[in-house]
Design goal:
Layout (H helix, E strand, L loop, with lengths): L1 E7 L4 E6 L2 E4 L4 E6 L2 E4 L4 E6 L2 E3 L5 E5 L3 E2 L3
Antiparallel strand pairs: 1-2, 1-8, 1-9, 2-3, 3-4, 4-5, 5-6, 6-7, 7-8
């Protein structure tokens, strides 16, 4: 499995993306990536992804995705 960190603009870890699932930094599943949109567990749009940029729903850059790293769960 490949994992990428989700960071805010200050470099603080928000969570991580493992395959298409999104987890918080306490390993709790909080959503999933479908296409270029991250949805929360209720199915509501939460963030957008544009290459390595993490965007709010208005398209403003709020963070980034870190380098891909192997991860065994």
């Amino acid at each position: 499995m490949i994992r990428r960190g989700l960071y805010n603009r200050e470099g603080e870890l928000l969570g991580y993306l493992a395959d298409s699932r999104v987890y918080d930094h306490q390993d709790q599943w909080i959503g999933e990536l479908r296409g270029t949109t991250i949805y929360d567990r209720d199915g509501d749009r939460r963030w957008l992804v544009d290459h390595d940029a993490l965007l709010d729903l208005r398209g403003n850059v709020i963070g980034y995705l870190g380098e891909a790293a192997p991860y065994d769960r």
